[in-house]
Amino acid sequence: MFKYLEDFVGNTPLVKLKRIPGDTTNTILVKLEGNNPAGSVKDRPALSMIRRAQMRGDIQVGDTLIEATSGNTGIALAMAAAVMGYRMVLLLPKNSSIERIQTMKAYGAEVILTEGMEAARDQALQMAQAGQGLILDQFANADNPLAHFESTGPEIWRDTAGTITHFVSSMGTTGTIMGTQRFLKAQNSAVQIIGVQPCDGAQIPGIRKWTPEYVPTICHFDLIDRLMEVNQTDAEAMTRRLAREEGIFAGISSGGALCAALALSQEVENAVIVSIVCDRGDRYLSTGVFPA
User: Fold this and answer.
1) What are the φ/ψ torsions at residue 180 (nearest 5 degrees)?
2) What is the pLDDT along the chain (292 residues), one digit of tens a residue?
3) 174 is in an annotated binding site
4) Exactly one of 70, 96, 151, 253 is catalytic; which is it?
């Protein structure tokens, strides 16, 4: 039976690392979200937010949707909007990689560049209030973490046969960690949830430490067992190692999350640690993280 493109979102591979972990009693697994149709973990909430808004009658085919994004959500929403028949307007920081901007435009989205992520969020809200479209608002929309509760969490539980002991995820919008932890904790409250944030001064795409007034509404820090910080140099070095030593071409936030997973692995034994590989490396080629 034939399927539509959106039917292939999710059920991404969970891969055991061979070389990077070294000599350890722990099993370190990475979930390859770059295998989603638009290339990132954000395909899941993008599809969820549009589908559920449509089911509620909040939007109709042909409407204009607005969203502030640092990149991956925008690409995913542009793809989903193209599939489902919506006009997409995306606001993102002007320092975003050219690959991200071009990919959004390739899907037919209108792109507006701003001075930063906070400015993008503010302008998106202003546009929605002015009646220029509906803001989906990944930062406050419960349909974002719900997508991970319904798919990412169950897939990890299934593919580890319930043996997972630690879940490690970079934190940006926080939809991935919020939704996945909810499912995993419901299966086994002993599973440890590790959130990864950048050190002060680090500029790692996809990982954010928000000022208090911009912390996403969907984020609940009390549901995270531990926060770990990663610096930019280490995240970029680990991203290159993933490609060279494991054959996994990933983005910089994935390298940052794996740094935290490996640090955690030094503290525990006989653990099953799952880390999220958020996207693919091809949308970072112009950033200089990979050698020319």
Assistant:
1) -70, -40
2) 899 999 999 999 999 999 999 999 999 999 999 999 999 999 999 999 999 999 999 999 999 999 999 889 999 999 999 999 999 999 999 988 899 999 999 999 999 999 999 999 999 999 999 999 999 999 999 999 999 999 999 999 999 999 999 999 999 999 999 999 999 999 999 999 999 999 998 989 889 999 999 999 999 999 999 999 999 999 999 999 999 999 999 999 999 999 999 999 999 999 999 999 999 999 999 989 998 6
3) yes
4) 253
And the tokens for 57? 């009658």
Q: What is the DSSP letter of 142?
A: T
114 annotated binding-site participant:
no
Residue 42 designated active-site: yes
pTM over 0.90: yes
- Could you give the domains of the chain? 5-36+144-284 (3.40.50.1100), 42-135 (3.40.50.1100)
How far is Cα 28 from Cα 35, in angstroms, rounded to an integer? 19
Q: Is 72 annotated as a binding residue?
A: yes
